[in-house]
């Protein structure tokens, strides 16, 4: 559609989804498509609302020349009604989102795993929170592959 909208979602909204959001935003900007996309990320839970992304996520993005000012927020009913795509990171996200969307009248969002778009077929983007820098780098690379493929499909 002319104004495609996208939301990127994961559990706490401080590790994976801010990386995915920042990556997608940069891709859209590089392709000069900012006017066609609204990109955001949100959490399924309310654990980290108002918090900045994990410092390791920020470092990882910075190493790739990407800045983000994102603060965690929880997904809302309106998100399901306004976004075309809600992309999540793993099966528990998917279950929670589908459950929430069932409680929303006129949900228009297509809810999918971001990993569905990975040309390398890594379906799940694992939470790097308990891992190390290398795990954040893996998440970054997965997000780049998936977001590129997603953008190609819907551009």
UniProtKB/TrEMBL annotation:
It is found in: Cytoplasm. Transmembrane segments: none annotated. It comes from the Eukaryota. The active site is at residues 16, 127. GO terms for cellular component: cytoplasm. Acts on tyrosine phosphorylated proteins, low-MW aryl phosphates and natural and synthetic acyl phosphates. It comes from Leptocoma aspasia. The gene is Acp1. It is an enzyme of class 3 (hydrolase). CDD domains: LMWPTP. GO terms for molecular function: acid phosphatase activity; non-membrane spanning protein tyrosine phosphatase activity. It catalyses: a phosphate monoester + H2O = an alcohol + phosphate; O-phospho-L-tyrosyl-[protein] + H2O = L-tyrosyl-[protein] + phosphate. Keywords: Cytoplasm, Hydrolase, Protein phosphatase. SUPFAM superfamilies: Phosphotyrosine protein phosphatases I (SSF52788). Residues 9-153 form the Phosphotyrosine protein phosphatase I domain. This is Low molecular weight phosphotyrosine protein phosphatase. Its main location: cytoplasm. Its EC number is 3.1.3.2, 3.1.3.48. Pfam families: LMWPc. Belongs to the low molecular weight phosphotyrosine protein phosphatase family.
């Amino acid at each position: 559609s002319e104004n495609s909208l996208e939301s990127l979602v994961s559990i706490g909204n401080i590790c994976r989804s801010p990386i995915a959001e920042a990556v997608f935003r940069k891709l859209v900007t590089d392709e000069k498509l900012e006017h066609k996309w609204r990109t955001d990320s949100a959490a399924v839970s309310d654990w980290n609302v108002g918090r900045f992304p994990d410092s390791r996520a920020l470092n990882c993005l910075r190493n790739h020349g990407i800045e983000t000012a994102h603060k965690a927020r929880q997904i809302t009913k309106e998100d399901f009604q306004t976004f075309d795509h809600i992309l999540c990171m793993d099966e528990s996200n998917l279950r929670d989102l589908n459950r929430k969307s069932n409680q929303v009248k006129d949900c228009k969002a297509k809810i999918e795993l971001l990993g569905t778009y990975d040309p390398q077929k890594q379906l799940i983007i694992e939470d790097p929170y308990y891992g190390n820098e290398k795990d954040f780098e893996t998440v970054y690379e997965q997000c780049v592959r998936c977001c590129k493929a997603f953008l190609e499909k819907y551009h």
